[in-house]
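Thread title: Can someone regenerate the structure for this chain?

I was given the following input by a collaborator and told the matching structure tokens would be attached. They weren't. Posting the sequence so someone can regenerate them.
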Amino acid sequence: MSTQTPHAPSGRELRQRRRARQIAEHASGGILSLIIKIALIAVVDAISLFALFVAMTQRQWIVFAVVLVIAAVVNVVYFTRGWLPAKYLTPGLVFLLIFQVFVIGYTGYIAFTNYGTGHNSTKEDAVMALVQSAQERVPDSPAYDLTVLEQLGNYSFLVTAPDGTVSVGDDDTPLSSVGDAEMSGGVAVGLPGYTSLDFAGILEHQKEIAAMTVQISDDPNDGALRTPDGSKAYLYVSTLEYDEAAGTMTDTETGTVYSDTGVGAFTAESGEQLMPGWSINVGVENFTKAFTEQSIRGPLISVTIWTFAFALLSVLTTFALGLFLAIVFNDMRMKGRKLYRVVMILPYAFPGFLGALVWAGLLNRDFGFVNDVLFGGAAIPWLTNTWLAKLSILWVNLWLGFPYMFLVCTGALQSIPDELTEAATVDGAKPFAVFRLIKLPLLLVSIAPLLISSFAFNFNNFNLIYMLTEGGPRDAAAGINVGGTDILISMVYKVAFDGATSDYGLASAFSIIIFVVVALVAIISFKQTKALEDLN
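Best answer:
Regenerated them for you:
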């Protein structure tokens, strides 16, 4: 049994190691790089401090903790010698957390709430909004001497009560006593740190000042001060009286009692609700609503079927046309191939949303080029009839999408060795058999991942749908804002942002469903791609 002594590094190896160490030290050292690093870290720390301050004022402690941890990690990584891989990985990881993980996590959180129109704030804000919306001026109420103050674009009331008490407050802060106000004739006219508005300033901002409501105290039932002219303020009290202990809102004029029944709004025994309400956790109610309520389930199923059909047909048609043109222009006997290739990729060179807008004008029923010129002035509803609109969308998507497939298929075909096709031809294989048995399988191995990504892209092709038809024509029988050409992503947009009311919770639930569906399709497709590679 023999032992082998370790190999001593040669002089060349030692020089290479020394050179590598110098390069690493140079990448993380130097006065100029240190100054740039300190400046960038200072910017990051300033942004982090601002974010921490905002999160603390809003009492968002989870956000506060996350920002604090990220800022600390960034400082430790970039002020520690060495750790070169971490210095390169940290920016990507931070942006991944902000723009991917946080967005997906927050969407998932909203999906389990009733967040939307009428339910977009806290219970305290809803109570204040209800009380203020039902305020009426107290008859024969005493007048309060008023000076309107301005600070950093925000307005406040400097009030002198009939008993001489001076206090200040604004829309968000109830009145609080002050002792250092500037007095003139027994009336407070100024406050350190604020600018007192004169008559011209009050006239310039009359709408904002007249809309202000400053609470007398922390109890909304005590009433608030409002001013019609900026010089005198009057007491307003609400016809809605809030009982914090009982959790009820009482209409003092009718005697109706509205209770907090756990639905995010004060509700009477008759079922009548006071709006606005507040955001609460509703569990899986949004998902249940999507699959159990017929007015939502029916449109959801039809939209899902059309989304799959649109994505699949878009991939098939663009791939078929792109492959056909790639085969034609890959033939050495074709003259002017370079010019034709340039012409073929022109639709791909223009922005997709701009191309969709141009086609929307061309297909207009009343004055579009297609109807006026190609069909002799016929009024064909290309974009307003459900089936014609779907056909138009597939046609426009084919025009926009085939150049991409043409490019990738051209590259894939040129990478296939000529010896394979020559050998098959010598063995007596026909041209179509050579293509079907040799070229197409090799082609699919190369571009199958691109076909999967194209399917995922068209599954969420919001620009084309919204720019061409805006998802129309509208389905009047649906319980949500949805149209005949809507795909899932455009339906989500409409539920969240389009129309008189917005339901962000339901839209987020739809988004989670879309995410799961696309993920499953991608996983299955990539497994099939792997099987294709093994077979090949």
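Residues 123-274 form one domain.
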